[in-house]
Automatic annotation (TrEMBL):
GO terms for molecular function: DNA binding; DNA-binding transcription factor activity. GO terms for biological process: response to stress. Keywords: DNA-binding. It comes from Amycolatopsis rubida. The keyword DNA-binding applies. This is DNA-binding transcriptional regulator, MarR family. InterPro entries: HTH_MarR-typ, MarR/SlyA-like, WH-like_DNA-bd_sf, WH_DNA-bd_sf. The keyword Transcription regulation does not apply. Residues 11-143 form the HTH marR-type domain.
Length: 152
């Protein structure tokens, strides 16, 4: 047994359960994107911008895990489709932020509503104490997963 196999053999079952959630999330995103004839990166870009607000194309690319040129291509394609818009800064006309359009917001709301309702129904089965423990655990998992992430 090599070192990687030895580590995995001793991993806590909860860690594997989190891995299952991550895989299910990735699969869900792919299915939702397909349902609106987008690819997963396009729908993820809309979700990122909806959650974090306008940002530059390079930052969006970093959050998506794609290169600057790939991010520019994505923004160009989505702008042409009417999902994203470039907005020049009022203070520095050289700076451009990318934002979602009303059309993209409507699509995101439509595709996210069913899974959010299902997740909310499951969450509502928890007691207040259980919910507090789960929120704390998920916050720590999120922090651990974001460790070392360099986003400016």
């Amino acid at each position: 047994m090599d070192e990687n196999q030895a580590v995995l053999a001793n991993v806590d079952e909860t860690t594997f359960a989190v891995r299952g959630v991550i895989e299910a999330s990735r699969d869900l995103m792919a299915r939702m994107a397909k349902s609106v004839e987008m690819n997963a990166n396009d729908l993820t870009a809309i979700a990122i911008l909806n959650h974090h607000g306008p940002m530059g194309p390079v930052e969006l690319g970093r959050r998506l895990g794609i290169s600057g040129p790939s991010a520019t291509t994505l923004v160009d394609r989505m702008e042409e489709a009417g999902y994203l818009a470039r907005v020049r800064s009022d203070t520095d006309r050289r700076r451009v932020a990318v934002t979602v359009t009303d059309s993209a917001r409507e699509i995101a709301a439509a595709v996210w509503r069913p899974p959010i309702e299902k997740l909310d129904a499951v969450s509502r089965t928890l007691s207040a104490a259980e919910s507090a423990v789960v929120r704390d655990f998920l916050a720590r998992i999120t922090e651990a997963m974001n460790e070392g992430r360099e986003i400016s």
